[in-house]
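Researcher: Next entry in the queue.
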Amino acid sequence: MSDTDGKDSATAAAPPELGTPGVPFERHSPFYIGFFGGLGALLAFWLGTQLLAVSSALLLIVVALFLAAGLNPVVEFLIGRGMQRSWAVLSVIVGVLIALGLFVLAIVPVISDQVAALTRSAPGWLDQLQRNATVQDLDAKYDVIDRIRDYVEQGDYASSIFGGVLDVGLAVLSALANTFIVTVLMLYFLSSLEKTKHAIYRLAPRSRRDRVAKLGDRVIDSVGGYVSGAFVVATCAGISSVIFLFVVGLGEYAVALAFVVALLDVIPMIGATIGAVIVTAIGFATDVKIGIACAIFYLIYQQLENYVIYPRVMSRSVDIPGAVTVIAALLGASLLGVVGALLAIPTAAAILMITREVFIRRQDAR
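Model: Structure for this entry, 366 residues:
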């Protein structure tokens, strides 16, 4: 061994200049657990605040995913007729764009004209209410009409109206922007749905990937069936309403009111009732006979929808108990409003299906 090797061995055996390392820090000590636990809590709080900051964007993404799942059955139907998936997706996308264009060009002007007619008729309806004996009694007790008149005559009324109109305008622009974003995302998700599903399924272990894929496909089919079925039910409500309103003598407002009924009919539990109440109230304001006819029509139609149309349309898409439907809609509405109520039922159906296929089967096997 050379002299150089001896010097290196002596240097390595010598203690380090900064001292001998001590005993490693005990990971089970209270300080260690508290320090890193606190860091984890702070990190979780920071991530939670970031999620809340982007919650509106995440909500748009979820809505677009649900709508894409709702259009997917149409794509699968075209594929079953021998069309390639790329052409089927392109056909559905073109159909959606054409439908939106026709809606904007044909329906929106009619609705705006009829809304303007409703606005012009509203003062007359208010005058009729003032001549009502019950309203006069309430005015005599609580001085309602004079309070409204004093509020209108105040100097700050114009500024408050201007602020309200500005807020409404901003809300309309925000709604249009959100609609455009959801439409673009929906079309993108629809075109890449198969690739997205396969990418998610690859995250599962290979031994369970086939079962995860089958469960995932069934969940997507269930959600898509519910979304498309809800639009079919709402379309039936709108078409029947517009025909009835033309027959009963409310043709001047038929398209606008039918659109309101169809839009509200998508909301579970209370949407159809709210639409019926709105139309019936306008019918009574126009003529008592028309109001009675509206009340009878919607009473009969809701029974037909609840016990004939809805079960047949939803029989292949959603299979959940009635109590779960009510609870899911209430929880969804309390968390996310109307959007939460719309997404609650298919989400509950998916959770129930996964529970039955995974958890309950595992419990039965023990």
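Model: The chain has a mean pLDDT of 76.
Researcher: Noted, moving on.
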